[in-house]
Amino acid sequence: xxxxxxxxxxxxxxxxxxxxxxxxxxxxxxxxxxxxxxxxxxxxxxxxxxxxxxxxxxxxxxxxxxxxxxxxxxxxxxxxxxxxxxxxxxxxxxxxxxxxxxxxxxxxxxxxxxxxxxxxxxxxxxxxxxxxxxxxxxxxxxxxxxxxxxxxxxxxxxxxxxxxxxxxxxxxxxxxxxxxxxxxxxxxxxxxxxxxxxxxxxxxxxxxxxxxxxxxxxxxxxxxxxxxxxxxxxxxxxxxxxxxxxxxxxxxxxxxxxx
Length: 259
Prior knowledge:
- This protein is α+β, with helices and mostly antiparallel strands.
- The chain has a domain at 4-68: DnaJ domain (Helix Hairpins, Orthogonal Bundle), CATH 1.10.287.110.
- The protein is built from seven helices and six strands; from the N terminus they run αααααββββββαα.
- Strands 3-2-1-4-5-6 form a six-stranded antiparallel β-sheet, with no helix packed on it.
């Protein structure tokens, strides 16, 4: 059995790159144009034969096994050729590239808009804070009359003032209140949000309103907290992205209630 390692002048533990380098060096030395020796032709055939075995990882592994076990036989299974010569076997499955932007790319694209919306939210919260801290405006008026309105879910008592303002009252609100009694509408100075209605002697007739300063006070609180985290980049990017989406819808509803 031929010693291919000796023919190429490398050790049995040589790296594939060392075998390739030795093969190229021998081919250049034994080439007929450089080496006129008649034996060079035979030697280059052996060099090619040795590199054909040692240059292929599968063949080299089989050759090394044969050197270590000279009396055993190893069979190298080869993949049969396809009938169609133009056929090319498929490699490992590669998933197709994702269509459209990835989640992180979408966050990077949307975040500048969410930051601007957060700044608007901070401005809205600042206006509401100044509005509630300013001294309330007191508008004196007089009750013109009461009437009962059918709301579809029952009857509601409506109080009408001399200035034309109408308020829906509960039964317990207008006990002891009559047409012609003086009333005071207490409201904010900037947005003119109604805070309460006072009767004679400072008695509060009504102070429960569907406004940002009463039943919907949680809306500006949500906008303020979310806007602070987004504008000052507090927390992870994905968290700020999710808060920004929520903040946008809550801010829209808050602005609608303001006007």
